[in-house]
Design goal:
With 488 residues, this protein is an alpha+beta fold. The chain contains seven helices and 24 strands. It is flat and about 125 Å long.
Length: 488
């Protein structure tokens, strides 16, 4: 079975293909031939031009047929090798061939410009309705003249005369019928205050309910009634404010706003009695103690208080969600271990074995304690103090499947795989997902825009393969470096 090559091979116009045999087969045995394909068929070299197999005869050749379709002497088309040139005589043309040149000419005579002008001039010369037409044979022009008074009202369409056809200042007062300027003829906001009737000083213009919409000069009593303001009202008068507040607190109880009101006090708020916050589960029940009700309103609460401090102390709540730990006795010092260090004990309920805590670090020659390398440390490939597990070793390799039926792949003919191995030192292998054969395509260590990448590879194909292609990528980052020898 032949080795599939899925992309072009560029020899740079330097390297040779030596001792190569053409594919020996019959043209009829080739299914779905590709344009440019070459075979050796029973002693004849044939190539496929996209529609048919053509034989390469020794000493033979082809001759291009060039066509001038514009008649300007320049070639603008070429007959394909698989096409036959056929010249067909049409109506009103003649064909003639001489010396390999075919001349195509029109038959019959053609009207001159003067003949056309005389024919049109004879048709229009004379008097038409309201228009005089004359033909000037010298310059070939037609003159159309509308006589004075020939345009009458019957020639004008309804609404044909608009504002653009009326001269400035042409419409005067005498031309407007009495009582014919309605409110529809007055644009919004076009009656100024200067055009209103004069009114007395300190006068409101409005209407009351009994005036049926007709405006009038309002009296003081009518204006105050509309504004709903008492005569002589003064909201800055202290006595008025106190009187209003007193009316709002008949039982020495002040209610401010409703359930949707937010009250802000700019200065200090001093409560000399008991402060009660309703509809809440947090209360200050006594000095230095805050009481929490909890989720269930019952006889049991949680109280938060503080010890008797011998100096100023600051306790900071962390930016975390969780539960506070409690000590059985009062603490006299702080815990210096970090949460990460305390978490090392997570899951340990008993101590067993003979570990004393002073075991040596393991090495190639000494037994001891050793740390497991992470996948990231394994990828670096240079850490000599940590152990690699099968799982972290597998992190040096990734695999992917190229879907040969993917519409984008069929159009672009490339696939980009984000291996994320952090190095360009990778081994890339491809094999057919069905036949399990190794296949070969162009592999670039770049992104889709052909920029160098340590995280991606771009695999390019000449044509979409017939099956899916499996891709295996393995990092050799950190491998032993060797220096090439260039002398014998």
């Amino acid at each position: 079975m032949a080795i599939p090559i899925l992309n072009h091979m560029d020899f740079g116009k330097v390297a040779e293909i030596q001792n190569v045999l053409l594919h020996t087969t019959g043209s009829g045995d080739v299914s779905s031939p590709g344009t440019g394909q070459i075979i050796y068929d029973s002693g004849t070299i044939k190539f496929y031009n996209g529609s048919a197999w053509l034989s390469l005869a020794s000493g033979g050749g082809t001759r291009a047929v060039q066509i001038d379709t514009n008649g300007d002497g320049s070639v603008n088309n070429t007959l394909e090798l698989s096409e036959n040139l056929v010249l067909k005589k049409g109506s009103g043309v003649t064909l003639a061939e001489s010396g390999g040149v075919v001349t195509i000419a029109a038959t019959g005579s053609q009207l001159t410009a003067e003949q056309v002008e005389d024919m049109v001039g004879g048709m229009l010369d004379g008097d038409e309705t309201g228009i005089s037409v004359s033909y000037d044979d010298t310059n070939g022009n037609l003159d159309f003249v509308i006589g004075a008074g020939d345009i009458v009202h019957s020639m004008l369409a309804d609404d044909a005369v608009d504002a653009d056809n009326i001269a400035a200042d042409a419409v005067v007062t005498a031309g407007i019928l009495d009582a014919n300027v309605t409110t529809a003829k007055i644009a919004d906001a076009n009656i100024t205050m200067a055009k209103l009737a004069n009114i007395a000083t300190d006068t409101f213009i409005g209407r009351t309910a009994d005036n049926a919409g007709v405006p009038k000069a309002l009296s003081k009593t009518e204006a105050l009634g509309i504004l709903n303001v008492e005569n002589g009202a003064d909201v800055t008068d202290t006595a008025n404010v106190k009187t209003a507040l007193g009316a709002a607190m008949p039982s020495n109880t002040l209610a401010i706003g409703d359930a949707n009101t937010v009250t802000t006090i700019a200065g200090n708020l001093i409560v000399t009695g008991t402060q009660t916050i309703q509809n809440e589960t947090v209360q200050v029940v006594e000095n230095n103690t805050i009481q929490f009700e909890g989720a269930t309103a019952d006889a049991h609460e949680v109280k938060l208080t503080a010890a008797d401090a011998t100096a100023d102390r600051t306790i900071t709540l962390p930016n975390l969600t969780g539960h506070a730990a409690l000590l059985a006795v009062a603490a006299t010092e702080t815990i210096t271990s970090t949460p990460a260090e305390l978490n090392l004990l997570d899951g340990i309920t008993t101590l067993s074995g003979s570990n004393t805590g002073d075991e040596p670090d393991a090495s190639a020659t000494v037994k001891g304690i050793i740390e497991i390398a992470t996948a990231a440390e394994t990828l670096v490939g240079t850490d000599a103090a940590r152990a690699v597990t099968p799982d972290t070793l597998a992190a040096k390799s990734v695999h992917a499947t190229i879907d040969h039926d993917n519409s984008d792949f069929e159009t672009q003919l490339f696939a980009v795989i984000d291996h994320g191995l952090g190095t360009e030192d990778v081994i890339v292998q491809l094999f057919d997902a069905v036949t399990k054969q190794n296949v070969y395509a162009e592999v670039n260590r770049t992104d889709k825009d052909n920029s160098a990448s340590t995280a991606k590879v771009k695999i390019i194909f000449a044509a979409a393969p017939t099956n899916d292609v499996e891709v295996m990528i393995t990092s050799i980052k950190g491998s032993t470096v060797k220096t090439p020898v260039y002398t014998a």
